[in-house]
Amino acid sequence: MPFRQRLQYSRFEMKYLLSEACARNVRDFVSSYLDLDEHADPNRPHCAYRVASLYLDTTSLDLYGQTMCGAKNRFKLRIRFYDDLPESPAFLEIKARQADVICKDRACVTREGVRCLLQGGVPDDSYLMSHNGSARASAAVLRRFHQLGRSIQAREVAYVSYLREAYVLPDSNRVRVTFDRQLMGSLFDAEVGLEMPRDGTKVKLDKVILELKFNDRFPDWMRALVQTFNIQRRSVPKYCYCIQALGLRSSRRRIAARGIA
Asked: Which residue of 23, 39, 202, 244 lies most exposed, with the fewest beta carbons within 10 A?
């Protein structure tokens, strides 16, 4: 089933690290309120599906640094995709944090549009794909993504990929719970272009990443979940974990040597 686009929305995200045993119990609790999302893969354990994002950053990894120092207002630029099929869309995402609120803008584009962008071109509206949401809003996100990237001289740095088990309210994305496993960082190869990572460096994180996501008010049942399992909210920056696993933390010279500076 094609991945649906959801444009310009704000939400709260609360993250936790769980043991696998705790994650199973939390899943049982969550499944009383939510359903598996539409992309669940019954052929994989936990009905999980692969998620991959190509992150853009400056040569000195300024966006990474802002996350590591806990800047209250910051953003990320990434290109998210779910397979290598040439006809499948990719999503240009601007994910901004303003204090505890996450604002995510998304534009659905063709693989040719991504190729144009990564080669330094300016993708026009002809590269947009028709999904849920306003075509005008998608075009605005496309332009803003390109402008933000140019303003900081962003370059392709690394892939972040993992297996995601996701639950949502039926016919709604207002409440969402995800369990992420097998977090892996992979280097980008400009000669290959956008490609689902098949190998890389696994992050040494013997935990399941739980994310509770909601618009507006923290649902009472989520509050009960946190209290029942006595779990503690914490920062879990996947991009930063992958940068560190790949040894790129202080890597301006390494990034330049790979030809993307």
From this structure: 202
| CATH code, domain carrying 114 | 3.20.100.30
Specify the pTM: 0.89
- DSSP characters for 165-198? EEEE-TT--SEEEEEEEEEEEEE--TTT-S----
Residue type, 252: R
Q: Tell me, yes or no, whether 247 lies in a domain.
A: yes
Q: How far apart are CA 73 and CA 69, in angstroms?
A: 11
What single letter denotes the amino acid at residue 185? G
Q: Say how many domains are in the chain.
A: 1
Q: pLDDT by residue (tens digit) across 125-167?
A: 999 997 555 677 889 999 999 999 999 999 999 999 999 999 9
Angle at 247 between CA 242 and CA 251, to 5 degrees: 110
Question: Nearest-CA neighbor of 211 among 102, 108, 132, 107?
Answer: 102
Q: Please, are residues 181 and 162 in contact by the beta-carbon 8 Å criterion?
A: yes
Domain that holds residue 45: 9-257
Q: Considering the domain boundaries, does residue 2 fall inside one?
A: no
